[in-house]
Structure formats: structure tokens, C-alpha cells
Amino acid sequence: MHFDSRTQQALREVGLDTDAIAAASDRVAELVAEDADRIRTFFDGDGPYYSDMELTHSTEPVQTHPTAAVDLFTHGSDLRGYLSLDGWGVPVEGGRVLRNESGDAEEGRSDRPVLIELSLGETLHDRVRFARDREVL
Fold it and tell me: Which of 77, 91, 103, 118 is a Cys-bridge partner for 95, taking CB atoms 3.0 to 4.6 Å apart?
């Protein structure tokens, strides 16, 4: 179970028993794994990819990345990995789908993602949105 002791206590106080808390924990892990798969799908295929990443050497609000690849793993509620962009890379410390082809991130979970957000680690320490279409950003 990935809930910390305070969260477990709060869930018990609102009436959930141990089995329900364990089921909720399992469901969170399933949803994180589904998001990781959806983010991998986003990065399948050739670029370009677009982001709102702030780069020291650029004044452009939208960056173009000719190539991108992501290697992700999950553990409980954690989604981590590594993002490679144009010959350099950065650790991924979290991520989520913001929008699918159908619109909402939750509706049509099987739709291809069109806008995602990654929490990037060392060297950037920022949340960055990525899209396959510049206009989506």
C-alpha cells in the first residue's frame, strides 16, 4: 500500500476499512500505470514535438523538438523515468495526460493523448507541457 500513515488514518476516519483502503491503493497504482502507457503512446512515432519548456538559449514561448523518447516505470503512485530530447535528456519525476483527442483527459481514456504534462527533474525542475501540434499549447 502506498498511502502514508496520515492518509490511511484519514481514510479510516471517513469510514473506509482496511480492505477498501487497499482496494483504493491498488486502483491508484492501476491508474498511474495506465497514464504511463498513455504517455508512452504520446511519444510513439516520429516528431516533431512541441513544449512550453523554458530554455536558457531561447526566447520562444514554444519549443520544437525534432525527436523525443520516454522510458517510464511505475511503482504504486509514482511515475518516473527518463525523457530524451534532441540528444540530451532529463529525469521524469511525474506525469499526466491533460487532454485526449476527444477533449477531456478522463473521458475517452483510450483516445490518443494530444497534451501531456511531465514533471522534470535535475537541470529543469519544472512542469512542462508537451503537444504533437503547436496550436494545442
Answer: 118
